[in-house]
Specification:
- The chain is of the alpha+beta class.
- The chain is built from three helices and four strands, in the order βααβββα.
- Strands 1-2-3-4 form a four-stranded antiparallel beta sheet, sandwiched between helices.
- β2 and β3 form a beta hairpin.
- The longest helix has 15 residues.
- It is globular.
- It starts with a strand and ends in a 5-residue tail after the last helix.
Length: about 110
């Protein structure tokens, strides 16, 4: 069973997932704002208009997704959608994306 929870309550696990995501995509993302430490993650995605989610499959951390506001008050960016390979095929990514889109709409984002 897949459950989606507030990632701010699981920052240590989110930081591990973010590291795995960056290793998986094998692209240098150093030009982006840092989000390696729990403090950086909380600041970027935990503030006004930001959200952070973690998915669990039968209690094991399976994936994550984040969103944060852009300069235009009607825009947000969804980032760090990642599912651990052991949990692919369980619809974790789809459920995370749906949660992020629903929350973005509820927050008033249009794009």
């Amino acid at each position: 069973m897949v459950t989606i929870e507030d990632g701010m309550q699981h920052l240590d696990e989110i930081a591990k997932l973010f590291t795995e995501y960056k290793d998986y995509i094998a692209v240098d993302v150093s030009f982006q704002p840092a989000d390696q430490t729990t403090e950086e993650i909380a600041k970027r995605y935990g503030g006004d208009g930001g959200r952070l989610y973690i998915a669990f499959v039968d209690g094991a951390a399976a994936g994550c997704i984040a969103l944060h506001p852009m300069k235009d008050a009607h825009d947000c960016e969804i980032k760090r959608l990642f599912t651990r390979s052991a949990f692919r095929g369980h619809h974790v990514g789809r459920l995370l994306m749906q949660r992020a889109l629903d929350e973005a709409r509820a927050l008033g984002y249009r794009r």
